[in-house]
Amino acid sequence: AASDLGDAINAGRTLAPNVHLVGMSWGGLLALAAAADGLTGRLASLTLLTPALYSKPIGLAFVIKVASGLLLRRPRVIELPVVPEDFTKIPEKLTFVRNDLLRAKVATPGFLWETMLLQQRVRRMSPARAPKHLTVALSDIDTLIDNGKTAALAERLGGRVRHFPGTRHSLALEDPQGVAAMLHEHVGLET
User: Fold this and answer.
1) pLDDT reading at 97 higher than 90
2) What is the SS3 assignment for 23?
3) Is 127 exposed, middle or buried (0-12, 13-18, 19+ CB in 10 A)?
4) pTM score
């Protein structure tokens, strides 16, 4: 997946020489993994919105399900331990999340295993491979990711961390104007 993203960025550079990549949640994990694989020289900036770099503890029962799925091929899919309220508390946005046909509700054990491997890879990433302009945006009421560990990793990589008070995991739903202003500021950096 990270190499596919790299191919897309390379193809896009023929149209636009300065690529500003934004990744949210799992997409933020994928974007940073792609950078760890050597895309940093091709990115003008990388912005991660509540990236899934460190998940909050999910419990032993969930880990056993994943292990069972990998070893015994049962279960074939696992219900994800997330609810719409993890993403937003804004009533009209909550209705949108609840009715979103593309919202991930289940995943295969293989996908969850690969996610864990991606998380391990980005956690070991060298600051020398980090994008020149890295910004990590965090919600302060995030029930899905560990903000402290995520901020520490961003700072170790030379990135800056922006906190969005009073928001949940889906920053773009919770504070679209604040996210837009941050993106405008970040993309406006000289490269």
Assistant:
1) yes
2) strand
3) exposed
4) 0.88
